[in-house]
Amino acid sequence: MTLDFDDVLPHIGGWGKYQKLLFWLICVPAALPCAFHGFVQVFMNAIPPHWCHVPELAGFPLEAQKNLSLPYEEQLGELVPSQCNMYDIDYVQLVRENVTWVANVSWPKVPCTRGWRYEHKLYDETVTTEMDLVCDKNWIGMMTYTVYSFGNLCGNFIFGFLQDWLGRKKAFFICLTVETVFGIATAFAPELISYTVFRFMVGLTVPQIFVIPFVIGIELVGPERRGFTTIMQCVSYSSGLLVLAGVAYLVRDWRNLALATSIPFILMYGYWWFLPESARWLLSKNRIDEAEAIVQKAAKVNGMTVPPELIRKLMKEQEKGELGQLLPGKARTYTLLDLFRTPNLRKKTVLVSFIWLVNVIVYVGLSIYIPILGESDYVNFALSSAVELLSYPILFCVIDRWGRRWPLCISMMLGGVACIATVLVPSGYLEPTIILALVGKFGAGTSFTLMYLFSGEIFPTVLRGIGIGFSELVGSVGGVATPFIVYLGYQYRDLPAFIMGTVTLVASVLAMALPETLNQKLPETVEEAEEFGKNQPFCFCCARRKPSMDDVARNDEDLAAAKSSDETENL
């Protein structure tokens, strides 16, 4: 029998006091900075209602100014005052002659020539209003989203590599430093270029600031608790989005909002003294003594005992499974290419990456798209975050009964159909469109949660950081395009949702080709990952099983046999 790290967990406790303290006090709160920095630009870049500034009419009531200076234009099926054009007339003369304050629709029209005025009902100041990024410049605001998403793309690769090279702990604090420094710097950006550069740097850390603690958490708990820990971290993330809506409502100046969503996370540097390195990662690097120290500490806190021979035997079994013998004190270095060397692991890598791509497009796209549909950005964003929280009780009920694969497929199908159905809503009816988009966000949030869990279980320990990082790297390519998909909604209301719904349905079908991972041991080596799921039936669904003392007894028997064999060899 081949032992791996999952064979150690019954000895230390797969969900003991040590894991609970680590999870609730460190891993769960670490999801908050990802939520804040991931979507604070929805509010910092918000485009409030605006209209052409006409100084000659400044002394008159606002409605009178609009009636006289703004032509009506069709927007999303409704006639509304223009936000980008004005009548080209002599307003000084008009004020003297026009006592009825009614415009003549035959007057010539021109784009705004002397700037804009903005409604301050929802915002005191945004990047858009401060830098006049409206009308023929409104694409620039979306471009800053794209640059930020390009930072996500680069950061997923960089921090995916760093956490497998330097370890999870050091990579997390490097990530936290970059996010905090440039998040605060955003508040002091003097112009558009520096603002864009600072958002790119913050983008490097999202979602890795969430993923790295997630990897530490999932690697230290038993198979029966992986679903629970994944969902609870996502609950923390979605709760963070709700908190962000409240913070943005209270702090309506974009510079102050940048500070309010960055400074509090300086407190997380206190984690340095409590956050352990991943024992699985240490073992993959042949750092046995450090891994054993963490395992022994966890066992002690949990009131259990780990035989010293267990870790040594684990390393021997892992070394035998490698594609070549390791020299004492040496550890093989793995690269991205190892994900594609063998056919089964290659297939799973491609499928996981594509589904991640679709999830990013739909999840991020709907998170930006839904707030622009209604009267209040804060309410709509809060609703789109709340529907994610509704998905978690359902996941709790099904994830350890139906597994990961079928809930993933069903949630994506539901979200895809809802998004496509928005094209059936007549123009001028926003409420049904918002409801269908919220159903789509419910499906996207559910599938995103499942993909975090799926990715962590499919990739082997030696490539887990690189594998998840690569999948998110591919997903970030979709993030780069997402702002421009949403931008289409300003001209064609339902087109963004239709595009997102179509790609979601395609991904839901492809997800059926992934193996079920419920209650399966995490693959440690490339060889184990290649064999995992290779001959699994299409309708496979594991029955839930909790580790028992029989697991411990069987491991003890294996250890005794191994020790006896070693003593015989020495004789």
TrEMBL record:
Pfam families: Sugar_tr. Keywords: Membrane, Transmembrane, Transmembrane helix. InterPro entries: MFS_dom (IPR020846), MFS_sugar_transport-like (IPR005828), MFS_trans_sf (IPR036259), Sugar_transporter_CS (IPR005829). It is found in: Membrane. Residues 92-519 form the Major facilitator superfamily (MFS) profile domain. PROSITE patterns: MFS (PS50850), SUGAR_TRANSPORT_1 (PS00216). The chain crosses the membrane at residues 21-40, 139-159, 171-189, 201-222, 234-251, 257-275, 350-372, 378-399, 406-428, 434-454, 466-489, 495-514. Its main location: membrane. It is a multi-pass membrane protein. This is Organic cation transporter protein-like isoform X2. The gene is LOC106807516.
